[in-house]
Amino acid sequence: MTETILITCATDGIGLETAKRLAADGHKVILQGRSQAKLDAALGAVPGSTGVLADFSKLDDVRAMADAVEGPIDVLINNAGVLKAPTTITESGLDIRLVVNTLAPAALTEALLPKLAPNARVLNLSSAAQAKVDIAAMGDGRTMADMEAYAQSKLAITMWSEEMAARHPGLVFIAINPGSLLATNMVREGFGIAGSDISVGATS
Ligand SMILES: NC(=O)c1ccc[n+]([C@@H]2O[C@H](COP(=O)([O-])OP(=O)(O)OC[C@H]3O[C@@H](n4cnc5c(N)ncnc54)[C@H](OP(=O)(O)O)[C@@H]3O)[C@@H](O)[C@H]2O)c1
Prior knowledge:
Elements: E1 4-7, H1 13-24, E2 28-33, H2 36-45, E3 50-53, H3 59-68, E4 73-78, H4 96-112, E5 116-125, H5 135-139, H6 146-167, E6 172-176, H7 185-191
Bound molecules: NADP nicotinamide-adenine-dinucleotide phosphate.
């Protein structure tokens, strides 16, 4: 059965690899990117896909994206994730990991609820790296260690997934750890290592 699948941050890494596989399986894939150039490159690599632009460090962008996307959506893959960034505090004074990794997927999903198919699945990319959330530290403009902020944002999206599953019993919400130290920009830039194969079906 052909399904409509929206993947966030699908211009690189796990998101792009997943998009290629799902399109090859015959699904209608919608890619979100933050730069037109990388989105165009991803659209070229994923046959039949369509794209939408949004910077996930800006929640207004995310809400505008939700308005622009056409439903019904069968599967939403909240793949958005950042570990290191040139500027770690957003224009709204929040840690960028909290915004991109947790608040943006939550805002997007809430805004898309009316456009989700009745039995839609929402897959949220979490991580094995998880730490107790210090919401004050994430929200008061202080600079946090990259891994600490990342780990907190990932426990936060896992907790949010459980809450959404309880609130919306007709829908499926799952928090996923895709593997660890997979070969993506995040791992290359964050850990200075090549990482392990991310091609779908590879074991890590
Ligand atoms: N790699 C691993 O081993 C691993 C392990 C556990 C969990 N994860 C999770 O898996 C997900 C995918 O990670 P990945 O390793 O594939 O990362 P990646 O290769 O670094 O790709 C990250 C994607 O996020 C986009 N992005 C970054 N900041 C953004 C922003 N402000 N607005 C919109 N898009 C933005 C990037 O866009 P550009 O292409 O424009 O840069 C890129 O498409 C993340 O949630 C990550 O936390 C990864």
